[in-house]
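Troubleshooting log. The previous structure file for this entry was overwritten by mistake, so regenerating from the original sequence record. Sequence copied from the archived sheet and checked twice against the printout by T.R.
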Amino acid sequence: MIDVANRQRRVAVSAAQVRAVVAAAFEQERAGEPDVSVALVDDATIAAMNERWLGHEGPTDSLAFALDGDPGPDGLRGEVVASAETALREARARGLDPRGELLLYVAHGVLHLLGWDDHTPRARAAMNARARRAVRAGLRRARRR
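Regenerated output below.
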């Protein structure tokens, strides 16, 4: 199950597109069936969560929270929170599509749930490549439906 709560109005993205990207990331990683909740929020919401749960000040692109310890046979239960305002700001600064940027944040969060980290430049590059691949696959999947 992939639940999507779109609590923002800045970036046009459908719940079907978000679900397709999450499903593509799980499929790509051979992680079973996803059991994930995704919340698309504004900067104020993600900044409050970032400070409360991680002790970091200000907004960030995405947060991922594993709700269970080890993934079970039905996938990993977790939550991804992504900031549409950050996606819009970053996309404008780099001449990118805001929807694609937001979906990239979702894929990035899912990969964190699945055990990927981005603490070194090499790990970050590998994780970003996997996230971009999941977004492309997810958008293809969403268009077919």
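DSSP finds five helices and four strands in the chain. Archived copy saved in two places this time.
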